[in-house]
Task: inverse folding
DNA sequence: CTGAAAGCGCTAACAT
DNA sequence: ATGTTAGCGCTTTCAG
């Protein structure tokens, strides 16, 4: 465990100055072909790699982006990790992971994050408290809220960027489909009461229903968890006057609902109960579920996130909200048109 | 976007030396109560946070651990990210994510990693090439291979630590169960041909079958992907003399197999075909699958990983292999005892 | 194009 | 217990 070679070691071996070494590893610096080759050869022999941390200290660019998450049970988020890491890697950035306790929120963890001089923060499945928004804004670290926005109320002074699906529009699509297919007693199963994602989906859903002359007859919350959704399903469907369709705030919970419907209540989907989810996670397409759902595509959302991050790092824009369209994916949990 | 406050700024405001500030933020340093308070007050006012990168430069401790992955489709791995991040956070470390392209392997990405002065590397679902093992060993960065070990052949000079389940024992359990329940024409569906995990599971499975006086009648590979497994299932079951049971190298593929069995071949599980998976991912317990499987617990595996990492960072041990026991979880995809 | 020198923000001797 | 000093490994003026 000897110490790693430094630029000076390479310089000594290559018989050049230490700055020459630095320049060789700095894209676009002016070095002659011959010195560059001497340096590279020496570096190769010693197994030299520039110390990114030391570089950051002076360039003030850590090339690190923090990703804060708390809810990996839902397969949507692992996909986000994967795509975001890949995209950022391609831009020369790297992702530092932070798992926020669901209870304590992101605040605790964010104190840590800032010490690492991250150049940007992506908050997925976690909300940014106004306090934190201010902290980040003060330090000048761009924040992008992914798939969840904070209700800052009037406190929009520290506006942060966000990327979301058009959740309300998605909710409308769900409503229109259920009505068109003749479902009458319609339920909504929420995620978390303070989740903008869930709230927007619900808002669009209800608005469309009301325009179509009907409304939500039943409502419950599944806390975005599988077991929470099962419990909610038991409450919703465990009585005679049960709903004949349910729009669930995400696929993860929708699948839980289907399990309860079929196994505990022996109800047939979609004949006796229609189910619509949201996200289009890979599991929604699995043979046993074939869930009709509203997709939100990870790829364009991640692209938008990276774009937002980069433009803010360059100091171009203060904050911007990007809304990505979503679309209905019809599978087999809503009965076909008569 | 003004520049962040430095220790010197705090010192100036608090009317103390810059070292006093440093000491205040160094646990266990000797500072008087009064200076500490002055410093904390000043730091608070300025919103000062120590620069972890600058600190790393001198302490030679980045408190960063790299996590290399490539295969997040399988829900087993997101769980690993979650647990590992949490555990390391608790120890004051943080996880820098690296997604390795499946094709190019981890080599490309590792050049990057080392620049970040990570204190350890966890390779999950990716193999370490002997070249890389050497690089890491040279720099003295501990590496833990998680759930996959390299077949270095004779090149065990750069032995790396690993954490795996007792895959062979798990394979044996699967074999014993299938034989005990009277299945006769038994198939094995592999993950990747060069994956130690899959190979070990297969080895134990075959050994036990042979001890029980039978053997694997059919074999195919699903490349650890959902679609790959479906294709393999079509090949395995698409003829008259089909298997009556299959042990699949992991749950993710086992679920794909079940979809094909039920929907494309209208075969009933477990009556006509028995299915056993491996991992016990959350989805294995979902109502529509209820997969009988061999569990490998993420939690103890992650604990072992962190332990291995920490002890090697302290320079205590060179390399150690930890094997975590696994156990059968019987659900409903293997028929009950007669 | 190249080397010398200054310093990024911090910690860790070393004095006092 | 506190301040002074010397770097950690690197980039970036500034001369030449």
Result:
């Amino acid at each position: 465990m000897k110490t790693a070679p430094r630029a000076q070691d390479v310089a000594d071996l290559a018989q050049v100055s230490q700055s020459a070494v630095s320049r060789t590893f700095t894209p676009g610096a002016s070095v002659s072909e011959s010195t560059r080759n001497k340096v590279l050869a020496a570096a190769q022999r010693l197994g030299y790699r520039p110390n990114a941390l030391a570089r950051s200290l002076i360039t003030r660019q850590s090339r690190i982006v923090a990703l804060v998450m708390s809810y990996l049970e839902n397969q949507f988020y692992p996909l986000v990790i994967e795509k975001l890491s890949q995209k950022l890697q391609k831009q020369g950035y790297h992702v530092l992971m932070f798992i926020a306790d669901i209870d304590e929120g992101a605040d605790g963890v964010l104190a840590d994050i800032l010490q690492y001089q991250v150049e940007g923060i992506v908050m997925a499945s976690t909300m940014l408290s106004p306090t934190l928004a201010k902290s980040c804004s003060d330090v000048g670290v761009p924040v992008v809220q992914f798939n969840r926005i904070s209700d800052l109320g009037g406190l929009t002074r520290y506006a942060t960027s966000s990327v979301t699906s058009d959740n309300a529009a998605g909710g409308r699509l769900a409503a229109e489909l259920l009505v068109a297919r003749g479902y009458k007693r319609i339920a909504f199963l929420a995620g978390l009461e303070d989740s903008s994602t869930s709230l927007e989906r619900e808002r669009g859903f209800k608005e469309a229903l009301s325009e179509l002359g009907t409304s939500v007859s039943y409502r419950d919350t599944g806390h975005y968890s599988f077991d929470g959704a099962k419990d909610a399903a038991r409450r919703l469907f465990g009585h005679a006057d049960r709903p004949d369709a349910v729009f669930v705030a995400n696929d993860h919970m929708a699948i839980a609902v289907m399990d309860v419907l079929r196994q505990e209540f022996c109800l047939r989907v979609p004949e006796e109960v229609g189910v619509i989810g949201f996200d289009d996670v890979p599991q929604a397409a699995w043979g046993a579920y074939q869930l009709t759902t509203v997709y939100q595509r990870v790829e364009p959302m991640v692209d938008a996130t990276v774009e937002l991050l980069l433009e803010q790092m360059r100091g171009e824009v203060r904050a911007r909200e990007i809304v990505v369209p979503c679309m209905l994916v019809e599978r087999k949990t809503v009965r076909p048109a008569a």
About this structure: DSSP finds twelve helices and twelve strands in chain B. Residues 6-8, 18-19, 21-23, 26, 29, 50-51, 53-59 of chain B lie near DNA strand C (CB under 10 Å from a C1').
